[in-house]
Input
Amino acid sequence: MLDVLANRTYRHLFLAQVIALIGTGLATVALGLLAYDLAGANAGAVLGTALAIKMIAYVGVAPVAAAFAERLPRRAMLVCLDLVRAGVALLLPFVTEIWQVYLLIFVLQSAAAGFTPAFQATIPDILTDEKDYTKALSLSRLAYDLENLVSPILAAALLTVISFHLLFAGTVVGFLVSAALVVSVALPSPKPSAPRGIYERTTKGFRLYLATPRLRGLLALNLAIAAASAMVIVNTVVIVQAGFGLGQTATALALAAFGAGSMLAALLLPRVLEALPDRTVMLSGASLLIVGLFLGTFVSQYALMLPLWFGLGMGYAIAQTPAGRLLRRSAHPEDRPALFAAQFALSHGCWLMTYPIAGWLGARAGIPITFFALAGVATIAALLALTLWPRHDPKEIEHFHPGLIGDDPHLAGAVPVGGSYRHRHAFVIDSHHPEWPR
Output
């Protein structure tokens, strides 16, 4: 898997991602301490509101940022957004009011909503071989999981010698180093498509996404993934500390078990995806999540929770990691930023729905019922994915062009059939192909 790092451009971008993630992890710990410093016992409400603001920024800003990304040099855009994030992190230690936290979090996450899809859309332009790109997706999944493990440990170590306010300095350094690594390489900026209005450019990613059957299936899988991960993220601390009467260390260990399962799956996926279709692999991951959620209704001991969380982590990575392969297959290079932004917004929209279910239902109806309810959501979502994503999903599709004239360059090599033209090629939704062939 690591041989893909021999590509200098990808290696620098991967390091930029890892360093920025560690900086973000430090900021997450520091933000919790800052919320407690400002709000005391109401810190949970502050953090809950901050999380909602984060998701709203992700859902609302990503498509707009993608519309402007078509007109901006890729490297300049990524560097500017890193600098914006560094500037916000620099201001956070100086806030004195809760509303200031909310405002800065919105700006910070809006910058992330522009950065992440543009960054993700750049990787397939650099690693054009599908095997290399699959390895990059697994490395990216490992980076996210390692950040979840390393950042809290690093923050705890730093807090023994510095104030939590100085953790934000680590975030600033992370974003500045990330920007420097992006500057150090030349990035391909796909040739923009024909000029369009801002509304059409903003919605283009969603239109491409929803017109592609495999991506409609991916949207349903996003909901299954969000149902399981929301249960883990929101209720781990409740189950461990309120349910089992254990401490913070046991909570951290449970989350580490989830991360370890995800990391193991990410390590295995490149070889698995060489042997099995994406659809089979991702639906298997969703099935693992469903089984895990149903089993959660019966878990009454911490010792049983750890292997369950490990299994949920595996299902999470198996269902989610190959998504980039589907997006890469489903658009021309110039349309990928819009499509990745649509996936970013829609997947986080699923979390925006499942987070409140996991939290409110857990508090009012109890953990077993919440497990059962989210298992039901995941089951319905997986069945939708099974229906929406055709089993036969070839890269090249034979189709007809009744509306084009014979000298159109797109029809080179096409066979006249009556008043139409027939040919076969890798099919994606674009101006020549506004609908999927039936």
In short: The longest strand covers residues 420-426. The chain is about 75% helix and 5% strand.
